[in-house]
């Protein structure tokens, strides 16, 4: 990130001062649904096949928190993909929400988070009929896309909206895929700066119309500034227009190039790339697996940066993730492939470790109580029996093993040690366990 890769894809932004307005006559008020912003939002809604669209300048963090607050009453319950962004945890703490977690199935032997089973979401809703909504992440950081139509069917059969954290999916329409709203979701938080050439912090909240636009307008200011940047707002509109013009060809080419890269990496290097198989992948996300080589993902990322001038988006022990966009050039891809072919990388046999089953969460207190209560840090070896105060997320699988308010057990410590955690990775725990409230098992 960002999707423009530092290149002036949108030349209208080269002179930002002439469009750095505030709410004056003719510029409109973002949270009042005024023109000309409203017309720009409607153009984006048409492009993404949505009923409504709200421009936001607090990133997909603001979009996601607005979606949650608009769909779930304070103190309510939310069925949520365990693989959710930390912004969702912040919303739970602020709104005193109780999460009911559904854990995605591992995609492969490295434990990458894969699909959420619609049956698991069905069971969660059956066991917690008071849940007000379901939140899933699609695509996730590794590029895995959920079966939104199947999940939407389950949600709507139970009369609840489906919310999608699609922060990494702003480009999918241009790459030949449908938007989450077109697939049946009710709200979708989308970052226009992650994969499009819009400026940092720009985002969209797409809506099916199930939740009134006025509700979104009233809710969004709770999580954002009262002085939204008109430069950012303009960049969203310009990025949408670019997608409907030159950007469409750029992203179609990007998707074709990434498909070719996935094949070339497996054929011409010691590495492998995540391929389409049992699950659908973001056509422009490139996830490389380092297992079976002489480098970890972290080491490969460091080498690419220091020796070849290639910056990856993210690395874990077994993978390196790249965000490819319509701003990347053939020279960029050639430099990456040249680096991956280097003779310093060799194959090496590794002992396969069986995946540990994901421990069932045990909730002792609310996310809010754990987040705002006093906390302390303890070594991993001393954490058993404590109450988690901050999310603990080993990579892989990139899914929070522990969530605020959950009890830490020995099985969690063993899981973390298997995932290359050490005593140098302390855990934030509650300083004082709440005296009231029993234990509640999440799903």
How is the topology of this model organized?
Layout: H1 37-48, E1 52-56, H2 59-71, E2 77-81, H3 86-95, E3 98-102, H4 118-127, E4 133-137, E5 144-145, H5 148-157, E6 162-165, E7 187-191, E8 203-207, H6 213-219, H7 230-243, H8 246-268, E9 272-273, E10 280-281, E11 285-289, H9 297-308, E12 314-315, E13 319-323, H10 330-340, E14 362-363, H11 367-372, E15 375-378, H12 410-418, E16 427-430, E17 440-441
Q: Would you tell me the structural class of the helices and strands?
A: alpha/beta
Strand-residue fraction? 5-15%
Note the run of SSEs as H and E.
HEHEHEHEEHEEEHHHEEEHEEHEHEHEE
Spatial arrangement of strands, main beta sheet: 1-8-7-6-4-2-3
Mean pLDDT: 92
Any low-confidence stretches, pLDDT <50, length ≥5?
436-443
Q: So what's the overall shape?
A: globular
User: Rounded to an integer, what's the Rg over CA atoms?
Assistant: 22 Å
How many helices does DSSP assign?
12
Q: Helix coverage percent of residues?
A: 25-40%
Q: How many strand segments? A: 17
> Distance N terminus to C terminus?
34 Å
The major β-sheet equals: 7 strands, mixed
Annotation keywords:
alpha/beta, 14% strand, 31% helix, seven-stranded mixed sheet, 443 residues
Task: Describe this structure in a few short sentences.
The protein is α/β, with parallel strands linked by helices. The chain has helices at 37-48, 59-71, 86-95, 118-127, 148-157, 213-219, 230-243, 246-268, 297-308, 330-340, 367-372, 410-418, and strands at residues 52-56, 77-81, 98-102, 133-137, 144-145, 162-165, 187-191, 203-207, 272-273, 280-281, 285-289, 314-315, 319-323, 362-363, 375-378, 427-430, 440-441.
């Amino acid at each position: 990130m960002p999707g423009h890769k530092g290149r002036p894809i949108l030349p209208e932004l080269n002179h930002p001062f002439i469009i750095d307005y505030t709410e004056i006559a003719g510029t409109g008020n973002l949270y009042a649904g005024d023109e000309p912003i409203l017309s720009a939002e409607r153009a984006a809604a048409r492009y993404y096949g949505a009923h409504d669209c709200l421009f936001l300048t607090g990133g997909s963090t603001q979009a996601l928190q607005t979606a949650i607050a608009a769909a779930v009453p304070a103190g309510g319950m939310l069925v949520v993909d365990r693989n959710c962004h930390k912004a969702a945890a912040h919303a739970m703490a602020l709104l005193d929400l109780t999460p009911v977690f559904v854990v995605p199935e591992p995609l492969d032997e490295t434990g990458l988070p894969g699909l959420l089973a619609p049956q698991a979401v069905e069971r969660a809703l059956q066991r917690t009929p008071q849940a007000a909504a379901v939140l899933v992440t699609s695509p996730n950081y590794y590029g895995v896309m959920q079966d939104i139509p199947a999940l939407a069917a389950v949600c709507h059969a139970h009369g609840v909206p489906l919310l999608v954290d699609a922060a990494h999916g702003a480009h999918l329409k241009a790459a030949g895929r449908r938007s989450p709203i077109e697939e049946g979701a009710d709200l979708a938080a989308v970052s226009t700066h992650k994969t499009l050439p819009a400026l940092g912090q720009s985002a969209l909240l797409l809506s099916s119309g199930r939740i009134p636009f006025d509700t979104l307008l009233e809710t969004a200011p709770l999580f954002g500034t009262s002085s939204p940047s008109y430069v950012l707002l303009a960049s969203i509109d310009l990025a949408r227009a670019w997608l409907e013009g030159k950007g469409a060809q750029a992203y179609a080419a990007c998707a074709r190039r990434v498909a070719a890269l996935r094949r070339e990496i497996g054929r011409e290097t010691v590495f492998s790339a995540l391929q389409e198989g049992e699950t659908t992948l973001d056509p422009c996300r490139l996830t490389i697996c380092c297992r079976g080589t002489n480098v970890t993902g972290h080491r490969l990322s460091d080498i690419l940066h220091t020796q070849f001038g290639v910056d990856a988006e993210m690395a874990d022990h077994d993978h390196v993730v790249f965000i490819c966009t319509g701003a990347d050039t053939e020279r960029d891809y050639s430099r990456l492939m040249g680096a991956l072919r280097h003779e310093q990388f060799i194959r090496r046999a590794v002992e396969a470790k069986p995946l540990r089953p994901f421990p069932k969460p045990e909730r002792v207190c609310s996310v809010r109580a754990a987040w705002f209560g006093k906390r302390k840090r303890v070594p991993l070896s001393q954490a058993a029996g404590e109450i988690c105060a901050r999310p603990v997320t080993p990579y892989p699988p990139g899914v929070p093993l522990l969530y605020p308010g959950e009890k830490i057990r020995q099985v969690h410590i063993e899981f973390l040690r298997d995932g290359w955690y050490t005593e140098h990775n302390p855990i934030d725990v509650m300083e004082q366990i709440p005296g009231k409230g029993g234990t509640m098992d999440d799903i």
